[in-house]
## 1
Amino acid sequence: MLWRPFVSTLALACALSLAGMARADILIKNATLYDGTGAPAVKGANILVKGDLIAQISTKPISAGRAKVIDATGKFVTPGLIDSHVHIRGGQAGSVRDGARRPIVDRGMAMPTLWGYLYSGVTTIYDSGNNAEFVIPLRDDERAGKIVSPRIFAAGGVISVPGGYGAGATSLKATTWEEFRPQLEAKINREHPDMLKMTKEQQGMYAAKSVPTLSDDMIKHITDFARERGVRSTVHASAEPMAEAAVLNGVSAMAHPVQRSVLNDSFVKLLVDRKIPISTTMQGYLTIAKLQDEGGMAFLDTPLFQATMTAEEIADTKGPERDDYIKNDLPAQRKVAEKYARANIKRLFDAGVILTSGTDKAYGPYTHVELQSLNMSGISPFDLIKIGTLNGAIYLGREKDLGSIEAGKYADILVLDADPAADVKNFQAINAVIKNGQQIERAKLDLPVNRKK
Ligand SMILES: [Zn+2]
C-alpha cells in the first residue's frame, strides 16, 4: 500500500495512527549511540520510545514489554537530522531571478518532497520564507499529525522593504514602524510564525543592482516586538557590516554565514558572545561552483537523490536550473568565493559559534551534500553529528524538547548501518527513521524508489 494524498479512507487511517492511537512503543537494542550533544559514543545502548517521547536510555537491559524491538547490534543511532534552511516546494511558482514569482498553494508538489526529507533521515525542517497561505496550514497539519512529514517550522512571508531583497509577492514590506507595526502584529497573531525571517541584503542577487534594505532602527523595532511575544528572528545578510548591524539590533540567528569577505575577529567574537546560531548553507560550493566541471553533477546520481527525486526533477536540476545559474555567473562567483567561504566556516566553528546544517534547498538529500561540504571545510564527522542535529534545535529555540537523544525529548531518531563519526557519508546508510515516536515506513512512501519496484 503506497501512501498517496487525498485518499480519504487511507488518509483517515493514517491520521489516526499518526495521532498515536495505535502506536506501539519501540525498543532499540544494543546500539552505538551518538546522542547529538557532542558526548562521546555510548556502546551497547538501549533506547526505549514511549508514545512520542524518548522514555529511557540505558546500557543495562530495558524490559521491552510489548514494544516493537529494533536490534541495532553493529548499528549506530543518532538524532534525526535537522535542515535549518529550506523553502518547501508548492508555495511559489516561477523564478526568483526573473522576477516572475507568484504565490501558489500546491500540496501535490510539496508532499513528495516532505516524504523525501523523511526518507533521507531529515526529521525537522525550518522553512525560511515562503507563501504564508501555503506553508502555515501545511505546518499546522504536520503539527496536528494529519500528514506524513518531517516537523515543519516556518517563517511565513519574508520581511523586507519595498524594492528590497526578497520583496516578492509573498513578502511583508516594511515602510515606517507606525505603518508596519500593525502588519507585524497581525502576522504574529494569525500565523504564529516559529521564527521571523528578515533580509538585510544590499546587493541584488547575482551581482545585480544595489537595493534598499531594512534600516537598523526597523530591525530593532521588529526584533523587540517579536521577542516580547516569544518569537525568534533570523536574517539573510551576506555582507559582514549588514550581518553585524542585524545582530547588534537583536536578531536571534543568521540564515547564512558571511561568505563574501574574510571575517573580522570582532564580528566572530560578537557571534560567540551573543550565542547567535548560523545556518551553514555551504552546499552551493559542492554543487553550484562545480556545475560546469566534469562530473560536477554526479551528486544527483547518488542513491538518495535517485530515490527521492523524480526523473523530471533531476532533469530540471541538470537543465533549466543549471542554465539559470550559469547565465547569472554563479558557478564562476562561487569558485572564487569557495576558498574564503570554507575558511570562514572553519573559523566560526573553531571559535565556538553554533553552526547548524542548512541547505537553502527543497529536497532532503541536500542535507547530506551540506554535511560533506562542511567536512571538506575541515569539520570532523564527529562534530558534524551535533551540527546536523541539536544545533538545529538551538537555532529554532527548541533545544529543550528536540534535537538530541535524551530522556523526555521527542523521539526523532535515526538507525544507521555505518558509523557517521568515521565518515560523514555514513549518515546516508539509513536503516530506520523514527519521527515523533513513529517508525517511518520508508519502503511505503510514495517516492520514485518505491514506484520502480
Ligand atoms: Zn533561503
Note: The radius of gyration is 21 Å.
## 2
Amino acid sequence: MAFKVELQPSRHSFEVSPDKTILQAGLDAGFHMPHSCRVGMCRTCRGTIKSGRVDYGDVHPASLSDIDKAKGYVLCCQARPLENTVIEVKELDGIDVLRPRVIPCRVEKVDKPTPDVAVISVRLPMNENFRFLAGQHIDVQLRDGKRRSYSIANSPKPEGVTTLELHVRHTPGGTFTDQVFSTLKVRDLLSFEGPLGTFYVREDSDKPIVMVASGTGFAPIKAMCEAAMQKGMKRPIALYWGCWTRRDLYMLSLPESWQHPNLKFIPVLSNPTPECAWTGRTGFVHRAVMEDFPNLSGVQVYACGAPAMVEAARADFSEKCGLPPEQFYADAFLTEAEKAAA
Ligand SMILES: Cc1cc2nc3c(=O)[nH]c(=O)nc-3n(C[C@H](O)[C@H](O)[C@H](O)COP(=O)(O)OP(=O)(O)OC[C@H]3O[C@@H](n4cnc5c(N)ncnc54)[C@H](O)[C@@H]3O)c2cc1C
Ligand code: FES
C-alpha cells in the first residue's frame, strides 16, 4: 500500500509505493533530497521523523543506531513509510536546472601519473553544454547495466563544459578499473548519467572551510577549490590531501601551485618510505586536521575519498572537536564490495 510522505519545512509531498524507498520516491517526484551512497552508509540522506512511522530498512547500527532512531532520525535511502509520515529534511536549492541525463562521450586522453591512478578526459558531443556543481559525480554505464561512480575533477563553467576530467584509482579485480588499466584507449566510447549527488559547497554559509581528501578523493575537492578561486570566494579554505606515499599524491604540483590568499594546502602521508624523502606532515589525514583545528565548532567540512577516512573524520570531528554534525558534507568512495557488505 502506498503512503504519503511530506517533507518539512518545504511541505513538498509525494506518494511512496511499497517498492520504493522514501529517497527514491522523493527524487522521482522531482524533489532535491540530499543523498550520496544510497546504500545506508554515508548518512547524507538523514532526516528526522516529525510524525508517522517507517520501516527503517536493513541499516547497520553504525549508520543509524537505536539512539538515533529514538531521536527520530531516519535514513531516507533505506526507509519505507508504514503510514502517512512527515519528515524534516534539508532539501537543496539551486540545482533545478541540473537534472541528470544519460550522455555519450569519447575518451580524449588517458594519463597515468602513477601506476594505479588514471586521469581520464572525456569529450561530450559538440552540442552538449554539460552543467554541474563542483563536487558532483557521474555514473559511468557499463555494458551489463552496471554503473560506477566517478567524481568530476574539473570545475564547471556557467555556460557548461564539453570535457570532463576523471581521476580513477585501479581496484585490482574491479570490473571497470581493470578495463581502464588494460584496454581503455583514446577514442573509445563511453556513456554516463549525470550530474549526480549532493556533494558541493554550500554557499549560504560564511564559515571557514576545511576540505579533506584521501587518494582520488582529491578529484571533486580539486573541482571545488578551482571553482572557489574562480568565483573569488572570500571564505578561508584549508585543504588536506592524504595519501600513503609521495607517489600517491599524483597531482601534488597542482595544489602546490595554487596561489590564493584564502587557500592553504597541506599534503599528508600516512606511510612515507625513505624513497619519499618526505619532510611534510605524516599520519592519518583527518588527524592532521584535528591537530590544526582542535575546535571545529565554527567550521564547515567537506570530506571525500576512502570510506574509512570519511567515517573516521565524521566521528572524530564531531565527538572530539565539536563539529556540528550537519556541517559535515561527504562523498565516500564506496566500491561494490562495500555496498554488498552494507
Ligand atoms: C559517489 C562516488 C564517487 C566516486 N568517485 C570516484 C572517483 O572519483 N575516483 C575513483 O577512483 N573512485 C571513485 N568511486 C569508486 C568507484 O565508483 C568504483 O567503486 C571503483 O572505481 C571500483 O570500480 P570497479 O568496477 O573497478 O570495481 P568493482 O567491480 O566495483 O569491484 C571492487 C572490488 O569489490 C569486489 N566486488 C565486486 N562485486 C562484489 C560483490 N557483489 N561482493 C563482494 N565483493 C565484490 C571486486 O572483486 C573488487 O575487489 C566513487 C564511488 C562513489 C560511491
Ligand atoms: S544516501 Fe542514505 S546513507 Fe548514504
Note: The pocket of flavin-adenine dinucleotide (ligand 1) is lined by residues 36-37, 137, 148-151, 167-169, 171, 173-177, 197, 216, 219, 331, 333-337, 340 (CB under 6 Å).
